[in-house]
Specification:
- The structure is a single chain.
- By secondary structure, the chain is mainly beta.
- It folds into two domains: about 1-30; about 35-135, Immunoglobulin-like.
- The protein has one helix and eight strands, in the order αββββββββ.
- The chain has one helix spanning about 5-25, and strands at about 40, 45, 50-55, 65-70, 75-90, 95-110, 120-125, 130-135.
- A four-stranded mixed sheet has the order 1-6-5-4, with no helix packed on it. Strands 2-3-8-7 form a four-stranded antiparallel sheet, with no helix packed on it.
- Strand 7 (about 120-125) and strand 8 (about 130-135) form a beta hairpin.
- The radius of gyration is 26 Å and the shape is flat.
- The chain starts with 6 loop residues before the first helix and ends in a 13-residue tail after the last strand.
- Pfam families: HSP20 (PF00011).
- It comes from Halobaculum roseum.
- This is Hsp20/alpha crystallin family protein.
- Belongs to the small heat shock protein (HSP20) family.
């Protein structure tokens, strides 16, 4: 009686080959984050009668590492930081055993449905959460025009 092949073993081998190729291409081992990878910042945008409020999660970023820009009807948020970690062995003169540096950046652009009063835009950052208040530009409401 012939032995049956395990169909899942071929799939597992394929996945292992793909992981090895990915590791070779990126210099990263499976499960590690890619250094210098630009990340996506999640945003909540809420509309009120006279303003929009955007709330963005930026954990680990200081406000000095974040920029907010409003041009035309677009809100742009960018953050960039470098993080350095060192481990030292106690009892010896300073001898670096491991040093890891990480560069992280996030960017996000949102199109806003109305014109914004760019002079009135405010931003506040607290505990890694950025809140941007975008007042609507007072646009003259439509008026009826008499025909002569």
């Amino acid at each position: 009686m012939p032995t049956r092949r395990d169909p899942f073993s071929e799939v597992e081998q394929l996945i292992e080959r793909m992981n090895r190729q990915l590791e070779a291409a990126t210099g990263s081992r499976s499960g590690e984050e890619f250094a210098d990878e630009e990340e996506y910042a999640p945003v909540d945008l809420v509309e009120y009668d006279d303003e929009f409020v955007a709330t963005v999660d930026l954990p680990g970023f200081d406000r000095s590492e974040v920029s907010v820009e409003v041009t035309d009807n677009t809100l742009r948020i960018a953050g960039e930081r470098e993080e350095e970690t060192e481990e030292r062995e106690e009892g010896e003169e300073e001898r670096v055993l491991r040093r890891e540096r990480r560069h992280e950046s996030v960017q996000r652009s949102l199109s806003l449905p109305d014109e914004i009063d760019t002079d009135g835009v405010t931003a506040e950052m607290k505990n890694g959460v950025l809140t941007v208040t975008l007042p609507r530009l007072d646009v003259e409401s439509s008026r009826e025009i008499e025909i002569e």
